[in-house]
Write a sequence for this structure.
């Protein structure tokens, strides 16, 4: 779980105090903190076509009273920034009065593991696997004219602080592995695409050479499309 207060002058105690004071006369509201990391790696025609990585950090502060909803956000987590957001919300809601709702449903049910797919598998191992995918698929025959394979991963750390110091946290992993195969036969070209993914690590989906099944299915789809497509007649 990401600690949002290690590299800032804003302490958790400061944040809880500002939130409780700001939302004291509201019906509802919270401070929503998010740290999001994502990556994308694409191999096309036996070459790494693109590779990207991004990281975003920030917060959103929401306050609700009656029919009025006030919202402020920033990609800077600091005491000054949060106080300014709290001041903006208080100004918007200065004529509104409410009673804070401290009771929200909580299930404590986990739907996925606390994993970071981006960091669990090294960049080099991802590149090596994409090259294996290319070689394995091209070995299926001369009909294979193009192979495109890609990794896409995301990891989000979430923390929600409500009035009174109530804290809710979550970690949200997400991955996708795709393979596209173009076949050509007798002047006809067709493409098959197949992929897998979900809220687990790459290895959860790719263990025991499961990536070969993705390649096989992409190839099968392209083959079916190729056989069902009528031959082009010469003019």
């Amino acid at each position: 779980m990401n600690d949002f207060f290690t590299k800032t002058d804003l302490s958790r105690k400061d944040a809880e105090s500002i939130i409780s004071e700001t939302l004291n006369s509201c019906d509802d509201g919270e401070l929503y903190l998010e740290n999001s990391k994502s990556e994308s790696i694409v191999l096309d025609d036996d070459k790494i076509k693109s590779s990207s990585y991004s990281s975003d950090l920030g917060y959103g502060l929401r306050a609700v009273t009656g029919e009025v909803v006030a919202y402020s956000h920033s990609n800077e987590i600091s005491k000054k920034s949060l106080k300014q957001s709290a001041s903006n919300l208080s100004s918007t809601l200065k004529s509104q009065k409410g009673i804070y709702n401290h009771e929200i449903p909580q299930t404590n049910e986990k739907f996925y593991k606390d994993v970071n797919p981006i960091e669990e598998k090294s960049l080099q191992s991802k590149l090596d696997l994409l090259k294996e995918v290319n070689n394995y698929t091209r070995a299926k025959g001369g009909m294979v004219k193009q192979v495109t394979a890609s990794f896409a991963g995301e990891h989000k750390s979430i923390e929600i602080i409500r009035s009174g110091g109530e804290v809710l946290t979550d970690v949200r992993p997400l991955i996708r592995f795709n393979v596209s195969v173009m076949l050509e036969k007798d002047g006809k070209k067709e493409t098959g695409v197949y992929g897998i993914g979900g809220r687990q690590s790459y290895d959860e989906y790719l263990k025991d050479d499961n990536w070969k099944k993705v390649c096989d299915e992409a190839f099968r789809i392209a083959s079916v499309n190729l056989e069902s497509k009528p031959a082009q007649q010469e003019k």
Summary: Residues 210-228 form the longest helix (19 residues).
